[in-house]
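Researcher: We're teaching a course module on how sequence relates to structure. For the next exercise, students receive a sequence and then see the predicted structure as tokens, so they can try to spot secondary structure elements on their own. Here is the exercise chain.
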Amino acid sequence: MERAVWSFDLKSLAKIGEGKVRELYAVDEKRMLIATTDRISAYDVVLPTPIPGKGRVLTALSRFWFRRFAEIV
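Model: And here is the predicted structure for the students to work with:
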């Protein structure tokens, strides 16, 4: 079974924000990295047991929609 990702420690990038599931890092002046963890959030609470692979699925969904609306954004 794969290990769950609870958080990231990207020392080469400046952390600019953190939510219940995602962490934001500045890549440069015009771009940011959205790192999605395997944490679970329910009713505004981060639950203690992450789901391995959840971050990968959320990233795939976000990537689909970012590409779908690339001309608008």
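Model: If you want an answer key for the exercise: Strands lie at 14-18, 22-26, 32-36, 40-42, 45-47. Residues 44 and 51 are 17 Å apart (CA to CA).
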